[in-house]
Amino acid sequence: MPKYQDELDAVLRALADPTRRAVVERLARSPAVVSDLAAPFSMALPSLMQHLRVLENAGLVTSEKHGRVRTVSLRPGALDVLHLWLDEQRTPAERHADRLGIHLTRANAKDT
Amino acid sequence: MPKYQDELDAVLRALADPTRRAVVERLARSPAVVSDLAAPFSMALPSLMQHLRVLENAGLVTSEKHGRVRTVSLRPGALDVLHLWLDEQRTPAERHADRLGIHLTRANAKDT
Which whole-number Å values give the CA distances from A102 to A1, A76, A107, B94, in the listed order? Predict the structure, then answer.
């Protein structure tokens, strides 16, 4: 699956920077206008815009301009590719623990 | 939490390379000796060793030498830092869907 691998490359590279992760963390709460996103960082606006472009190219965020205000949002399902890859890496022991956890949750639900 | 952020930087950078991800995918199944790890890649051994060093520095793998054979393992909990970060980014809508899922699983368990 080369497309999936390229997507993973782009997402992981985009997230391997603490400023870009902080932007994603902020947008996971709600969309934000660019000036509000810039506020917590002591960073020139062009630098922030460059980080936003990397996030947009990786498919992590989308943005829309209304008049002079650009609003940035986390793309729904943006991190799915990473969730999927991580799930695939669960070791046999971890899968066993997961099944046991589901079993115990169900047994517990029956008791209550 | 600067240490957590540094760890995330290193893990994400290490995983943003398809060869290193393939090594992690292989090691998630079981530990492997270096020559077996090298086999599926048309890559000189020194290049593979360099990828392994990046993975080791990021805390993703450990290796042990017995005689002339080096065995590489995925470090238990190696990907926890990434699971943790991803969980923190769940949007309010996703958290709501999770709670609904747990509720339905429990309701279903009661019915059976």
Answer: 31, 27, 9, 20
Are β-strands B32-33 and A61-66 bridged in parallel, bridged antiparallel, or unpaired? unpaired
CB contact under 8 A, A21 and B8: yes
Which chain A residues have a beta carbon less than 8 Å from that of B25? 88-89
Q: What is the residue whose two structure tokens read 């994603």?
A: A24
In angstroms, the CA A104 to CA A94 distance is: 15
User: Each residue of A74-90: pLDDT tens digit?
Assistant: 999 999 999 999 999 98
Q: Considering only alpha carbons, which residue of chain A is nearest residue B15?
A: A12
Q: What is the ipTM of this complex?
A: 0.80
Read off the pLDDT of residues A11-45 as tens digits, 9 standing for 90 and up: 999 999 999 999 999 999 999 999 899 888 888 88
Do B18 and A28 count as a contact with CB atoms less than 8 A apart? no
Distance from CA of B44 to the nearest CA of A (A): 22
Question: Is residue B103 exposed (0-12), middle (13-18) or buried (19+ Cβ within 10 Å)?
Answer: exposed
- Distance of alpha carbon A17 from the chain centroid: 13
Given a cut of 70, whether residue B80 has pLDDT beyond it is: yes
Closest partner residue to B86 (CB to CB) among A9, A79, A106 is: A79
Q: Among A88, B79, A95, which Cα is nearest to A103's?
A: A95
Residue B33 contacts residue B45 (beta carbons within 8 Å) = no
